[in-house]
Structure formats: C-alpha cells, structure tokens
C-alpha cells in the first residue's frame, strides 16, 4: 500500500514546467503526461503555488515555475504537497483499546521508530533537487534507457 502519490505528481508537474517552458502548460496537458484527471493536477499545482514554487491563477490557462528547479529539493515538494498532514510520514490510528495489552502500548512503541523513519526520509529527500530528477530523465532519454535502474 502506497502512502500517496502527491509527491511524485508534484515532482512530475515541476519537471514538466521546466522542460516545457516555451509552451502553455495547462492542467489538461500535464494530466495527459501524468495520466490522471486535470482536477488532480489543479489541486497539486495549487499546493505548489501556495509553497511559492509555481505561478498559476485559477481560471487562467497555464502554469509556470516561480523559481529554478535546481533550488527546489524533493523535501520542499514533499512538504508542499502534504500540508494537511504536516510533515508526518506516518499517522497513528486513534483510540486503541486500553484494555488490550497491544492497544495500551502500541503507539508508544511505534513513535520512536516512526520518527526515525521520518528523519531518514527527510534527509534523503533533502539531498535531491527537482533539477537532479530532470537531469536524470534527460540522461535516460539521451541514452535510450527505459528505466531508472
């Protein structure tokens, strides 16, 4: 089960905006590349706009980068597209049964492990920029590679 796809969609949008600077980047165009609904693109683009990464106006076709992708880390994108969850990768389930051995202690046991996983994720995402991703994509295209492996 995947946590969500907002991060990859956000990175996809930013990469498209960088590589298609000379054209109008409508939500329909971007949705066709991402293979999703334009409403999803508009929602994620709005989150990226709120974070200062994208310039877009509701009701006006087209979006563009608000700053260079070399200065946008994957951690920046992660934080931008997940505002409702803060920066927590994992959420705890609510109100486990205190009358159950596991229910009484599972959250406390998991907290430190979840925090460590969160720190590891953030450290890795902070090392990579959207510019690095676009560079990788262009190299794969140039080399004729079909996958990143």
TrEMBL record:
Q: Which InterPro entries match?
A: Tscrpt_reg_Rrf2 (IPR000944), WH-like_DNA-bd_sf (IPR036388), WH_DNA-bd_sf (IPR036390)
Which top-rank group of organisms is this from? Bacteria
Mention any one GO cellular component term assigned to this protein in its UniProt record.
cytosol
Q: In the record, what terms sit under GO molecular function? A: DNA-binding transcription factor activity
One Pfam family assigned to this protein is: Rrf2
Its recorded name reads Rrf2 family transcriptional regulator
Species of provenance: Paenibacillus protaetiae
